[in-house]
Amino acid sequence: MSIVPHFDYNLRKDEISGFAHNGKSKQIKLADHALVFMIRGIQKNYKQPVAYTFSSGSTSTAELATLIKEVIRKLHGVGLRVLATVCDQGTNNVSSINSLIKETKGKYFLKNEELYRDTFEVDDKEVISLYDLPHLIKGIRNNLINKHLICSIDGTKKFAKWDHIVKLYAKDPAYKGIRLVKN
């Protein structure tokens, strides 16, 4: 996420903060992005940030893939089991996940085995990558606004477009529940 670049002086530590920092080393560049790793419980309802970095510009694909593995290893090390990752479809996020999947498939290839799922492994533990549903819906909306979805129904080519959704909503804008739509 973008942040406002600025410097602060920490009197207690006698240091200036505001530089890019990946958790291991500081750069002499003003940070303008923050990256936050958060865990969420599956059996219990909780959310907790567990790691963050500051960068100048977006975090690179290679560095993000490394950070994902490091955070998962640390979580496994304290007894938490990471089942899945969730992120939006930002270019670096998708590229990082794809590189982790490719790395895992390469490991299986060297063992003369084949991995049929698009998952990745950290220390031989499978992790499923998911994309954030609200962002997926927004992407579908944006694609329908700019393009038409072509599908075949009973052998007939049909088009879906954003205008269809607008017209459907206009029929009953006050209705908030689920409904079946007549043909």
TrEMBL record:
Every Transposable element P transposase-like RNase H domain range: 1-100
Record-linked InterPro entries: TNP-like_RNaseH_N (IPR048365)
UniProt name for this protein: Transposable element P transposase-like RNase H domain-containing protein
Source species: Parnassius mnemosyne (clouded apollo)
